[in-house]
Amino acid sequence: MKNISKLVYLLVMLSGFEASAQNPKTDSLLTLLKTAKQDTTRVNNLNAISKEFINTGDYDLAISYAEKAEALAKHLGFKKGQAKAFKNHGTVYHYQGDYQKALDYYLSSLKIQEESRDRMGISASLNNIGIIYEIQGNYTKALENYLRALKIMEQIKDKNGIAGSLNNIGIIYLYQGDYPKALDYFLRALKIREEIGDKSGIATSLSNIGNIYGNQGDFSKALDNYLRVLKIREEMGDKSGIATSLSNIGIIYNNQGDFSKALVNYLRSLKISEEMGDKRGIGKYLNNIGGIYTRQGDNLKALNYYLRSLKIREEIGDKSGIAASFINLGIIYLKTGNNALAIEYGKKALTIGNEIEALDVIKSANENLSEAYQKINHHEKGLEHYKAFIAARDSLFNEDKKKKLLQSEMKFDYEKRNRLQNWSRKKKMPLL
Question: Rounded to two decimals, what is the model's pTM?
């Protein structure tokens, strides 16, 4: 059962988009639109309104305004506005779980930006494209796009963009089980976000660092991070972020054996995701709820939630999520004595794990397979998968990695303390 919670930790992925209720900014933009001429300013307003409706989860309206922006931008020959409209289209499909359509729109946006040499736009599109590849489990392509985006952001000295790219690169290393590298990138992103006062970005970085602590088994530190993040996101009205934070907090309670608190948090996350039409979130939280019932011994309920989660994840092509569902289904079949199905799902999970180079998936799949083969007296096969399980487990977190993690953490704390001291000294200096 240990592999359930650990895998769920790995699969908590933060959304880069903010969600909030309809706000004065939307009203103000709609008012401006009434008097706007048929020019580039109107295109910009239409795109801005589309973005606000994305934030509030009003996807039909978001698409409607993006289409108007794209049509007018094309008529005016306003390439930048057209690219932004394509990006908004892509973001809606991204949220709705239609990743191929999202990718198509992001690539269309990138093409226009490359033609017009819009470096900031290019880097943003590269990040978006990287996110889609990441969700699809193509970590090599995802990392390639993130590194290209980072290089451009550094060239144009866009601190916000640099932090975003560093964060995305860190997520890839987190998925691959390279926690020292992941922590290094997350801490570098956090440092920049604190310098520029980016509250949303700070929340994202703290949450990702919390994920690493959770994978290490340091639940106290993870919970501290998640609670800080939840407070920030509630202040911002960030619905998607709130759902992720509640789920992360639920995972901590799950690991600590407080199943009732965990379930309350998961159900709140699920409700928010359903309201927003966030299919990936729905699949993730259904999976988490299944984990609660597994640990409580209610195998029938657990199976129901895992199958519902798997159905959604297969619909949207969420490879890492599909692997998690396969592993959790394998656990249920092991518990109920259906070793043939446990082996079938274990093999499926292992295939995906090897394909996307996800060590945690490889570890858990081999653990399930080892147990299943032992139960049917295929001891040679069982030993083979047990050795693979141990190798993956040791690769995920060995003593050398512990030392590197500690060094990264100490370095960050030292630099942060120095920045605070320098800021304090400057504050006390007399005006000349």
Answer: 0.65
